[in-house]
Amino acid sequence: LQNRPVAGIHRGPMGLLYIGTQLDYGLLGGAISVFDPRSEHIDVYSKLIPEEEITALAADDRYVYAASDPQGGGGSAPTAKGSHFFVWDPQSKSIVFDHTFADDQQILSIAVVGGHAYFFKNDSIMDYDAARKTLSVLLHLGSGKAVPSESMRAARDGSVFGLFGNTVGRLYPSSHTIEYYDATKGKATQGLTIGLDGTVYFGSYTDMGMLHPKSPSPPLHSGQ
Question: How far is C-alpha 180 from the geometric centre of its chain's CA atoms?
Answer without folding.
Answer: 20
